[in-house]
């Protein structure tokens, strides 16, 4: 039976669940300007990964880490993500306008959008996203091809977060926490698999 820490009311698992929700709310608030969304999600992944290593996963630690890391590269990554989302929405709108070849174009655009989303989310989960977005995206693209199962788990996590937000709108402000936890878990899974192969 797990031992409770001093001040813990319900036990470590419930505490982690509460921390995930508080970090999710902090991530939603920090990502509202949209340009800060990649940095906000990357920071959430780092904070929740720290829980595995014995560091507190609290909203206070989240905002402290986010303040230290926000830089031009983070805002550039956010601008690129927003531009990509707008381009994707415009492409789907054009496909829905009844242009010749629209169904094939829509399927192609959706497939590209899914691949870019998986790479972007896996980049947010990587440790190097805290300091070097280019390296994080490059390695995430490799991970997405080498670890198809992990990419499937990322898509499942996104679908679950989107479904929760669609079913009950207030959950949209908590969804980034479980999503960040899932992304961090997929990346830890990848690191563990690479460690076993190297051993």
Kindly estimate the percentage of residues that lie in beta strands according to DSSP: under 5%
Main β-sheet, in a few words? Answer: none
Number of domains: 1
Helix percent band? over 70%
As residue ranges, the low-confidence spans are: none
Written as H for each helix and E for each strand, in order along the chain, the element string is HHHHHHHH
**What is the rounded Rg?**
18 Å
Identify the overall geometry: globular
Amino- and carboxy-terminal Cα gap: 32 Å
- Work out the helix count: 8
Mean pLDDT: 88
Number of strands: 0
Structural class based on helices, strands and sheet pairing: mainly alpha
Which characteristics define this entry?
mainly alpha; 199 residues; 8 helices
Fold blueprint:
Layout: H1 12-30, H2 37-52, H3 59-69, H4 72-95, H5 102-125, H6 133-146, H7 148-167, H8 176-198
Describe the structure.
It contains eight helices and no strands. Helix 2 packs across helix 3 and helix 2 packs across helix 5. It has one domain. It has 199 residues and is mostly helical. The two termini are 32 Å apart. 76% of the residues lie in helices and 0% in strands.
Overview in brief:
The protein is mainly alpha-helical. It has eight helices and no strands.
């Amino acid at each position: 039976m797990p031992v409770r820490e001093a001040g813990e009311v319900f036990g470590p698992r419930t505490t982690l669940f509460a921390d995930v929700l508080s970090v999710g709310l902090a991530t939603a608030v920090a990502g509202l300007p949209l340009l800060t969304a990649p940095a906000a999600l990357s920071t959430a992944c780092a904070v929740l990964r720290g829980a595995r290593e014995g560091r507190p996963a609290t909203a206070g630690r989240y905002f402290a880490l986010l303040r230290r890391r926000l830089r031009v590269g983070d805002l550039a990554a956010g601008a690129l993500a927003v531009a990509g989302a707008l381009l994707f929405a415009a492409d789907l709108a054009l496909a829905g306008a009844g242009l010749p070849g629209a169904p094939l174009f829509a399927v192609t655009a959706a497939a590209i959008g899914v691949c870019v989303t998986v790479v972007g989310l896996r980049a947010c989960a990587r440790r190097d996203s805290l300091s070097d977005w280019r390296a994080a995206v490059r390695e995430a693209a490799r991970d997405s091809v080498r670890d198809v199962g992990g990419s499937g788990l990322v898509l499942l996590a996104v679908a679950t977060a989107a479904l929760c937000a669609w079913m009950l709108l207030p959950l949209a402000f908590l969804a980034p926490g479980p999503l960040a936890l899932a992304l961090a878990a997929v990346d830890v899974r990848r690191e563990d698999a690479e460690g076993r192969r190297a051993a």
